Amino acid sequence: MSIVSTFKIMRGVVCKMLYFSLGSTVYGFNKNRPHEDIELLMPISNYGAMKLLFEALIGASLKSFLDKVCIYRFPNVVGVPAAHGVILVSLKNLKKDMFALGVLGNGAQQKVYLHVSKLVRVTLLLSKNKDKGVVHQVFKACWAAFHSKVFI
Prior knowledge:
With 152 residues, this protein is of the alpha/beta class. Helices cover 41% and strands 16% of the residues. The longest helix is centred in the middle third of the chain and has 19 residues, at 46-64. 7% of the residues are buried.
């Protein structure tokens, strides 16, 4: 089902609120770290373009027929049962050879992960926000907590 079909159904059943989640991946290359809320974003992939498109359509729908929109940008989510992802792949590779683990890139990359149980709690808490249209940068809060050694 496309987002356009979803909006048609929402209008038909008079649904006035939308809670939408997506990943926190960056849209393209930038000399400095991009600030998604203030800079022009130029996607370099279909995934990035669709992400921008969905957020734009949701914003326009807020102006035309929705009463409330919450967009959640989540970090990498872990938990059981894991079916895919870097942690599962790493565990499988460690089972093959517990003394060697291949790393893509230069090894200096950092990523934030959030357990699914905490993700559910954060989502429920943020959904109580009274603002009409809001983007919750959950990954930024997790990143700040990670660097300050405070765990969510």
